[in-house]
Design brief:
Elements: H1 2-7, H2 16-31, H3 40-58, H4 62-77
Helix pairs in contact: 2-3, 2-4
Length: 78
């Protein structure tokens, strides 16, 4: 499940890049071994596209949130 990976980060002091990497790893762990047929790639892309929305929803610190979003943007450009 996706949420245990997210809950494990709750209450920790993380940098923006730590948030981005931690959430990306939580998604990757959630997807590991899952096969939803032809929708697997779509499901994967959808979760990663929703990641900025998730960060905006759960990260309280404005600077950490901005850094996390910048880290994701940089990762998607490479």
């Amino acid at each position: 499940m996706l949420y245990p990976g997210i809950i494990n980060m709750a209450g920790r002091a993380l940098s923006g890049s730590g948030v981005a990497v931690g959430l990306s790893l939580a998604i990757a762990e959630h997807l590991k071994g899952r096969d939803v047929g032809e929708a697997t790639d779509v499901y994967t892309v959808l979760l990663f596209k929703l990641l900025p929305n998730l960060i905006n929803a759960i990260v309280d610190d404005e600077q950490v949130r901005a850094d996390a979003l910048a880290t994701l943007e940089k990762a998607h450009r490479t």
